[in-house]
Amino acid sequence: MSEHYFSSRPHSAPEARRVRLVVDGRAVELTSASGVFSADHLDRGTRVLLEHAARPPATGRLLDLGCGYGPIACALAIRAPGAVVHAVDVNERALELTTANAAELGLPNVQVGRPDELDAGLRFDRIYSNPPIRVGKAALHALLATWLDRLTEDGAAHLVVQRNLGSDSLQRWLRDQGWSATRAASIQGFRILDVRREASG
Ligand SMILES: C[S@@+](CC[C@H](N)C(=O)[O-])C[C@H]1O[C@@H](n2cnc3c(N)ncnc32)[C@H](O)[C@@H]1O
To answer: How close is the Cα of 26 to the center of ligand 1, in Å?
Structure first.
């Protein structure tokens, strides 16, 4: 049976792998496993996001939307130890890996869970995401509409999307929905989109 990285329960036995990344000069290793997105290496889009997106604020509530094995959530938690980093995913194996990675790296400010486990009243100062483009346009739009709505008034989202996988049409769609969506960077075929509420008045 075929299996997507966004399966809620990958049925293949997990084969552990180690993925290395460098966060502000600190080399860290994360455990990844078959059945999660980019299990063998840090995804290029994720690397572009971590190296070129705006840095997180020192405090506040951050969200890694679609955390996979946790590279974005862990990097945010290292950079902003005074912030709370929520990491959500629909893939149970991804959640287990992110939990284990945050524990191994000594990052108590990472909180991991399924999207429906998060208190619906929580608002986020920043959302960082390498979003699941392959779920299809309708599902992706529904996902982003749900979570962008949960940004604080002056909150911002930083999304990395491959140009070939529709970053420009996603940017147009976000604008059509009334968001300010600007291209913060364009690097190695990836765009970083910064999304904020349109200034009113
Ligand atoms: C492109 S991957 C990025 C994973 C990880 N952040 C990284 O950079 O390696 C997108 C992730 O979104 C997750 N995902 C898919 N549908 C989702 C949903 N409805 N809510 C939350 N996460 C979802 C997938 O399981 C996958 O782990």
So the answer is: 25
